[in-house]
């Protein structure tokens, strides 16, 4: 469906994440190893935080990531310690800029790999559940943006895991009433620029792939001659749809039905389950 990367740690230029790794995100846009399809060419987006503004920068395009000259150009110059990037494979909605991830609301970025099954049949009920003051800010037509606005409705800015759990709970409740089995599929990433929450969940219990890096200090001991590892601080964390390379022991799978929480150089994995509406 899609591929994404969430990065927090030592400030790096975007090309260090998007182009330089052996299995970089741009490489995954053409030759995904673990995705539902090998090609993710229906647009891309990248969001980043810096000292110039309290809200993240955002660059999105409907061009395939591998052929966009503007992305290659800015990737060599934009530098950040918190980056979200996403390459899209549409599940049916239009290829347009407003449908490209990540989605932004004030300081918050949100991206999703997967989909809401039977979304066309569920869309009206789901969007009616979005808070009236948030509904006008839905710009595109994707299930992912609707899920983001449901999470915002349920308090994403106060408690992201709980808000996403309640949003998915509504999705599953509406789907049950509409006769749609296994509606939720995917991995979700949320950040406010300081912390990152990455959730892996599907109604069927067979979610899309998701990995995070082994501690840099551990890898540095195992590979003392690797120059890339010596250029990263110990608090660097990378969450990816699929590993960026083949370095043995570098990538750990995020368990099914769990939430990876990253902040202040510390990460933990906690159980995740939808919360049914009252």
TrEMBL record:
InterPro entries assigned to the protein according to its UniProt record, in alphabetical order: EgtC-like (IPR026869), Gamma-glu_amide_hydrolase (IPR052373), GATase_2_dom (IPR017932), Ntn_hydrolases_N (IPR029055)
CDD domains, from UniProt? Answer: YafJ (cd01908)
Q: Does the keyword Acyltransferase apply?
A: no
Gene3D superfamilies cross-referenced by the UniProt entry = Glutamine Phosphoribosylpyrophosphate, subunit 1, domain 1
Keywords (alphabetical) are:
Glutamine amidotransferase
Pfam families xrefs: GATase_4 (PF13230)
Q: Where is the Glutamine amidotransferase type-2 domain?
A: 2-278
Q: Where are the transmembrane segments?
A: none
Tell me the protein's name. Class II glutamine amidotransferase
Native species: Cellulomonas alba
Classification of source organism? Bacteria, Bacillati, Actinomycetota, Actinomycetes, Micrococcales
């Amino acid at each position: 469906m899609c591929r994404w990367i969430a990065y927090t740690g030592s400030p790096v230029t975007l090309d260090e994440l998007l182009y330089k790794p052996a299995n970089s995100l741009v490489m995954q846009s053409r030759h995904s190893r673990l995705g539902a399809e090998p090609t993710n060419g229906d647009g891309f987006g990248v969001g980043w935080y810096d000292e110039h503004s309290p809200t993240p920068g955002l660059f999105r395009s409907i061009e395939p990531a591998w052929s966009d000259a503007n992305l290659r150009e800015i990737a060599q110059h934009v530098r950040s310690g918190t980056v979200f990037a996403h390459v899209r494979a549409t599940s049916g909605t239009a290829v347009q800029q407003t449908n490209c991830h990540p989605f932004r609301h004030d300081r918050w970025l949100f991206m999703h790999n997967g989909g809401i099954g039977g979304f066309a049949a569920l869309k009206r009920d789901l969007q009616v559940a979005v808070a009236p003051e948030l509904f006008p800010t839905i710009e595109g037509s994707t299930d992912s943006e609707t899920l983001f606005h449901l999470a915002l409705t349920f308090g994403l800015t106060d408690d992201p895991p709980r808000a996403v759990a309640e949003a998915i709970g509504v999705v599953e409740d509406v789907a049950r009433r509409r006769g749609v089995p296994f509606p939720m599929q995917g991995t979700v990433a949320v950040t406010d620029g300081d912390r990152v929450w990455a959730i892996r969940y599907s109604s069927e219990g067979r979610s899309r792939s998701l990995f995070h890096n082994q501690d840099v200090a551990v890898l540095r001991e195992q590979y003392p001659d690797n120059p890339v590892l010596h250029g990263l601080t110990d608090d660097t964390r990378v969450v990816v749809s699929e590993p960026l390379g083949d370095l043995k022991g570098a990538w750990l799978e995020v368990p099914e039905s769990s939430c990876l929480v990253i902040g202040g150089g510390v990460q933990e994995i906690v159980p995740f389950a939808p919360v049914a509406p009252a």
